[in-house]
Design a protein that fits this description.
- This protein is mainly α.
- The chain is 77% helix and 0% strand.
- The chain is built from nine helices and no strands.
Length: 197
Amino acid sequence: MTISPSPIIERGKRDKEQRRQSLIDSATAVFAERGYDCATTREVAERANCAEGLIHRYFNGKRGLLLAILESRATQVVEDFVGALPDRDTLEEEIEKVILWHLDTMWERRDFMRVAVSQAAIDSEIGRTINEGIHNERVRLTKEKLDRHKRSGRIRSGVELEAIAQTITVSLGQDRGIARSIAIEAAATLSRGICRR
């Protein structure tokens, strides 16, 4: 006779994941609003409507919670990128849309990214998590877009697509309007430079 799992156990696992995600979401907001150093685990727990002890149980403290946020962001990058950027017919339009997507997502998350980058400067594991997770995923996805154009004969041979993808994913400063103008001009310049003539 087989015994099926108890509905209480299943509900408990689901509740745990919901509480865990609620803590990640709340910490993202609290860290962005107050800064990492000023934010407290108590504030995060209160906003998530959870016990503060769960932060220590699930994440091993505030630093572990920040790492969990960054790992969650890395997973989300792929989904966001694919959903927002269907393939384009021209190389220039492809590069422009990718640069603008990177710029817009950085702008939307700028408060939290300030927290992450400042912590990366003093904590090498956080820096590695940002680089290996978020940045490298952005570069990989951008390079895949460029590879498609290269296979279609739109990019001349000898172009180092990894270097172009790294260039495209670099943040373009604080002023959004100026950064958008730079992004559009950079897309045109890059595409002219690597196009097959």
